[in-house]
Amino acid sequence: MEQRRRVPRRLGQYLAGCIITVLLLSGVSAQLKYSISEEVNEGTVVGYIQYKLNQNDQFRLEVKDKGDDGKIPILIVLKPLDRETAKKHSLVLTAMDGDKPPKTGSMNIQIHILDVNDNVPVFSSDAYSVTLRENAPLGTTVVQVNATDLDDGTNGEVIYSLGKSMNQQALNIFDINPLTGDITVKGLIDYEERDKYEIEIEASDKGIAPLTTEKSVNIKIIDLNDNAPEIEVTSFSSSIPEDSRPGTTVALISVNDLDSGVNGKVICSMSEDIPFSLAPTIQDTIFSLVTKYPLDREKQSHYDLTIFAKDAGQPPLSSEKTISVVVSDVNDNRPEFVLSPYTFYLSEANEPGTSVFSVKASWTYRPTVHIIATFITTK
Ligand SMILES: [Ca+2]
Ligand SMILES: [Ca+2]
Ligand SMILES: [Ca+2]
Ligand SMILES: [Ca+2]
């Protein structure tokens, strides 16, 4: 495929832009020779001279009558020239007389085509798509772009730059070497901030009126496991009644990992030898901290529960969080008297302050008697 893009020129511009140098190479041509008597009259025809250009499709010859200056063969451009196709044309101009066979003389004509800046730089690739790992060190080469320009000299020398329409954020992160086309990292590449960039680059020649080509470079950022899971306790009762049934929720634990894919996949765990465990919820990132067994305040009234979170990245990152849970005493049942009503008899003439009777009360659900109240009222 032809990798060439040429700026169209109107014919007038083109003719003005081309300078043709004609080198007449004297001494290489044969000469037309005539022998004629010195007695001939003025106006005697010496010979019929015809000019002829060798077969070519680029130039033609026209003979113009210039009056006193005689008839002059003029070389005319027949169709647009292109230095990038042929920078030199060699022609042969032949003069011949009317004899049979004709006598001929020829002249070599060399035409050098001078360059005008009519080719834009062309990138070697139609599209640039590359990947870049996040946190790439400053100076890392993302990709090297290349553009060529068919013109000559400075018209064909290419310099690279970032597009003027690029946003400031991308300008802060990427740079391009104007001479080599190396696109390098000059800022922090953070996948969590942005996972792809489309940057505009330009290739310009150094012509007096430079020609410029734009191209996009798509940069896909590859995630690295650079974020540890975060554990957040979203709903938490620091105290749990000791009579809580197994499966009672103590707290909701939310885990979040900013990375993606396996780097952001988190496994939560807790120590096995405690009466608490983590249960999944309908949301992947939220776990319930629940009681596993009945609690016994007499045995342990306080727990420091550590939740571990580890992602599946390579290498994995982890974090932990400890919450304190107090097992609270239960006192939500009214004590009941053992007998109700109590009936007792009292003999007269008691000393004030003498114990006359005792009553018992207890919580029904518990065999242990917690309160024994002793009181009596007198009329
Ligand atoms: Ca050019
Ligand atoms: Ca050119
Ligand atoms: Ca990451
Ligand atoms: Ca992670």
TrEMBL record:
Q: Does the keyword Glycoprotein apply?
A: yes
Recorded GO CC terms: plasma membrane
**Signal peptide positions (record):** 1-30
InterPro entries for the chain: Cadherin-like_dom, Cadherin-like_sf, Cadherin_CS, Protocadherin/Cadherin-CA
Name the source organism: Poecilia reticulata
Q: Which GO terms describe its biological process?
A: anatomical structure morphogenesis; homophilic cell adhesion via plasma membrane adhesion molecules
Write the record's keywords in alphabetical order, separated by commas: Calcium, Cell adhesion, Glycoprotein, Membrane, Repeat, Signal, Transmembrane, Transmembrane helix
Give the bilayer topology: Single-pass membrane protein
Recorded superkingdom: Eukaryota
Pfam families assigned: Cadherin
Q: Is Transmembrane helix among this UniProt entry's keywords?
A: yes
Under which name does UniProt file this protein?
Cadherin domain-containing protein
Q: Which CDD domains match?
A: Cadherin_repeat (cd11304)
Q: Where is the protein situated, by its record's location annotation?
A: Membrane
Coiled-coil features, chain-numbered ranges: none
Family annotation (SMART domains): CA
